[in-house]
Amino acid sequence: MVGLYSSVLAQLDPEDLERVKRYCEEVDTVYQIIDPGYQKERGTILRALCEVSKLLAKKYLTDKTETEDQFSERVKKCVELFQEGQKCMFVRLKKDPNDVSKYLVVARKDPVALSS
Predict the structure, then answer these.
(1) How far apart are CA 85 and CA 89, in angstroms?
(2) Residue-averaged pLDDT of the chain
(3) φ, ψ for residue 64, nearest 5 deg
(4) What confidence tens digit (pLDDT) does each residue in 62-100 have?
(5) 6 burial level (CB within 10 Å; 0-12, 13-18, 19+)
(6) How many Cβ atoms from other residues are within 10 Å of residue 80's Cβ?
(7) In this structure, are residues 102 and 95 in contact, taking their beta carbons and an 8 Å threshold?
(8) Centroid of chain to Cα 96
(9) What is the pTM of this model?
(10) Could you say which DSSP state residue 10 is in?
(11) What angle do CA 17, 72, 31 make, to 5 degrees?
(12) Element (H or E) spanning 85, and its range?
């Protein structure tokens, strides 16, 4: 459902955006239960949630439904969601102990189908 809405988010009214936001939050809650941690699918949902939250914050500020302080709080939450989503999109791999950094950060790749 979230994927279906992603291409038209900017055109949705606040009620529909709130519904998409709830979908994202519910899917994230399920991911945290069945597979806690930083998996790529959760990162995709968090990025969608961040985008929806950003659009809601902008609409509410533009419509004068919320104050600038409330807008700032929403933006802070968006930044946190974005950062959490980024963690899901990358993997830290242990490097050679002689290197300066202990870990190498690389982008996650989609699983490759096993050949029969």
Answers:
(1) 7
(2) 82
(3) 60, 30
(4) 999 999 999 999 999 999 999 999 888 876 655 566 656
(5) middle
(6) 13
(7) yes
(8) 31
(9) 0.74
(10) G
(11) 50
(12) helix 68-89
DSSP percent split of the chain into helix, strand, coil, nearest 5 = 65, 10, 30
Distance of CA 60 to the CA centre of its chain: 20
Contact (Cβ atoms closer than 8 angstroms) between residue 3 and residue 24? no
Residue owning tokens 């791999």: 93
Smallest CA-to-CA distance from 56 within 44, 45, 65 is with 65
Supply 10's token pair.
């900017």
Contact 65, 76 (CB under 8 A): no
User: Scanning the structure block, which residue is given the tokens 């802070």?
Assistant: 76
Residue length of the chain: 116
> Which position has the token pair 């870990």?
103
State how far the alpha carbon of 1 is from the alpha carbons of 8, 24, 48, 77, in Å.
Answer: 12, 9, 11, 23
Residue with structure tokens 């699918």? 41
More confident residue, 45 or 113: 45
- Residue 114: the pLDDT is 46
